[in-house]
Model the fold of this input.
Amino acid sequence: MFAQPLIDALEFARNGKQIRAEVSIEALSRLSDLVSHSHGTLSYTVRGYSIGEVDMLSLEVVGECTLRCQRCLGEMNYPLNLNASLRLVDSATMDEVEAEDEIEYIEASTQLDVLALVEDELLLSLPFAPKHAAGVCSPAPESLQHSANPFSVLAALKK
Done:
């Protein structure tokens, strides 16, 4: 097992550094809880840059994971092509930052865990209830299908 990559976020951004690597889905424990199986790897790139006085990180993640469709409960391949721009702010001004839709803010840490950052952004990008496209799902097994309306039982109790 390799050591977790830790970076000094501000130094990384100000010097225009870059990390390019691969990580197995199995190594991302919170992500592996949401996928159907944890086989495969994801490629990621973290780039640091500055625009004037603003320090930024750019994150790209490419790969594929297997999610469970919420319609048919079958497996579905979900392509990942994540691009995120993250503005670094110190902890003192983090509470004062106004939220913007286009730019995400993260705290500029001297010990920023790159894999945790990758996993956080992936979790935010996954759909809440993944589903196949309409017409692709096979019907649920008969053991999961209900023929009677559960509210009809309640209506019978009222009489």
The chain has one domain: 6-158. The first strand starts at residue 6 and ends at 7. The mean pLDDT is 84. The longest helix spans residues 114-125.
